[in-house]
Amino acid sequence: MRKLWLVLAALATLSLSGCGYNEFQRLDEQVNASWSEVLNNYQRRADLIPNLVATVQGAADFEKSTLVELTNARAAVGQIRATPELVNDPEAFKRFEAAQTRLGGALSRLLAVSERYPQLTATKQFGELQAQLEGTENRITVARGRYIKAVQQYNVLVREFPTNLTAKMFGYHTKANFTVENEKTLAAPPKIDFSRPAPAKN
Questions:
Q1: Higher pLDDT, 58 or 198
Q2: How far is 186 from 139, CA to CA, in rounded Å?
Q3: pTM of the model
Q4: Residues near 130 by beta carbon (within 8 Å), at least 6 away in sequence
């Protein structure tokens, strides 16, 4: 009787392996790890912004609307609960992506405007913050790339035959991914217009 159970257990293991169940487990963990890396780097960027805003506020006549835009964009990101389950909710993921894109755009505009304030950009504190932000943006790009690849592999497994049958049986669904349009936007360097004159001092 015991031998029969061992044989049945072995057959069940082989069956699960052959239908892609084990691969689903592996890729699901890979997606989760990649998503955590994305969130960690986005949080790193958000944590740097208050110091950047405080530093920029010290510059005379700095454009307040740019600071307000960045502060509001960061607040909007903070209102979204970024959990591991977010990747399973396409609508929530879109809101998260839109908020991060808005924050990235506001940050790029602030740095572009800062170029018109040489006394600010020459300070050690601003230079260090800028270097940290540049490093963080690079980490975000790498982390997003890993996440995109992990989700693509997972989603293919969900859709392909015969593993799509396993997906239906165990309730695996495709996961949300970053849009191509958003990737193009991130790849484009911020435009800095040096033609605008510096604001007149009172």
A1: 58
A2: 13
A3: 0.78
A4: 111, 121
Q: Quick: pLDDT tens for 100-135.
A: 999 999 999 999 999 989 989 999 999 999 999 999
Q: Would the CA dihedral through 63, 65, 71, 77 be positive or negative?
A: negative
Residues 6+ apart with CB under 8 A from 40: 143
Integer Cα distance of 58 and 21 in angstroms: 57
Helix 21-57 vs helix 163-170: crossing angle, to nearest 10:
70
C-alpha span between 186 and 38 (Å, rounded): 14
Topology (CATH) of 22-187: de novo design (two linked rop proteins) (1.20.1440)
Structure tokens at 178: 């970053």
Question: In this predicted model, what pLDDT tens digit does every residue of 20-66 receive, in sequence order?
Answer: 899 999 999 999 999 999 999 999 999 999 999 999 988 877 888 99
